[in-house]
TrEMBL record:
Stated name of the protein: NAD(P)-binding protein
MF (Gene Ontology): oxidoreductase activity
Keyword Transcription recorded: no
Gene3D superfamilies xrefs: NAD(P)-binding Rossmann-like Domain
Keyword Oxidoreductase tagged: yes
Taxon lineage: Eukaryota, Fungi, Dikarya, Basidiomycota, Agaricomycotina
InterPro entries: NAD(P)-bd_dom_sf (IPR036291), Sc_DH/Rdtase_CS (IPR020904), SDR_fam (IPR002347)
Length: 260
């Protein structure tokens, strides 16, 4: 499968922190020099990325489908060469269902981590299909999590949202086969991140997480190779134990459906 070294224009959501921020900087430095568009909430960090010759657009994905449609249309209109989207925006909350669970946070977390991602993909696929008809490859890159394979019970909704996105990624691979639209799923293990700051667990987790630079190097290599699933650490172990056959099984289901 082709990789993102063939990309001319890459949109990255969640680019103001963590994996998204690091990927934006790294992809902008690829020898192929693709145009990088960084989307995120924090304007100060977008300004920092803009100083690195990266295009920026402010976006809070926890919004309505109408707003996401306007965002997708705007990006395609302004950057008609757009051929890659990397979906990194995410949030993680702790919930204990034995106590009062904050339903507002449950809904928001699912919207940020899954619904908005599926929505942006749905709005960009028609554009990518047109590129495929012209013989140009395009790439959809959802960022899921090892917790989408084996859940962490203290972050049950986060784990469920990433499991949903992992399942969607496999289905998209089967649906979009032979269209020129390639799906590559990034499945991080526990990686150095601000994601854990809100619950005061960063110091403890920093003793066991994978350094961000190390993970980004592995991820860039996988994206350039065109790997269908890009992972590391215990997430890679879990994938090997529980998920290896799902791509083939899902494709078999899709082919059977297509023959009905």
């Amino acid at each position: 499968m082709p990789g993102i070294e063939q990309s001319k224009c890459v949109l990255i959501t969640g680019a103001t922190a963590g994996i998204g921020h690091a990927l934006a900087l790294s992809i902008a430095k690829l020898p192929s020099q693709p145009q990088v568009i960084a989307a995120g909430r924090r304007q100060d960090r977008l300004n920092e990325l803009a100083s690195s010759n990266i295009e920026t657009v402010q976006l809070d994905v926890d919004t309505s489908t109408e707003s996401l449609k306007k965002f997708a249309d705007h990006v395609v209109d302004k950057y008609p060469e757009l051929d890659t989207v990397i979906l990194c925006a995410g949030v993680q909350h702790e919930f204990d269902f034995k106590k009062d669970a904050d339903v507002g946070k449950l809904v928001s977390e699912m919207n940020i981590n899954y619904t908005s991602v599926a929505t942006i993909i749905a709005y960009l696929v028609p554009h990518f299909l047109k590129l495929g008809e012209q013989g140009r490859p395009s790439f959809i890159v959802p960022v899921t999590s090892g917790l989408g394979i084996v859940p962490a019970p203290w972050v049950p909704n986060y784990s469920a949202s990433k499991a949903a996105l992992h399942s969607l990624s496999i289905s998209l691979m089967a649906q979009l086969r032979d269209t020129g639209v390639h799906v590559m799923e990034v499945i991080p293990p526990l990686v150095e991140s601000e994601l854990h700051d809100a619950y005061g667990t960063t110091e403890k987790l920093s003793k066991i997480w994978m350094p961000l630079d190390e993970f980004i190097k592995l991820t860039i290599n996988g994206l350039c190779r065109g790997d269908a699933h890009i992972s590391a650490g215990n997430a890679l172990v879990y994938f090997g134990q529980f998920e290896k056959e799902k791509d083939k099984l899902a494709l078999d289901y899709q082919l059977r459906h297509d023959s009905w």
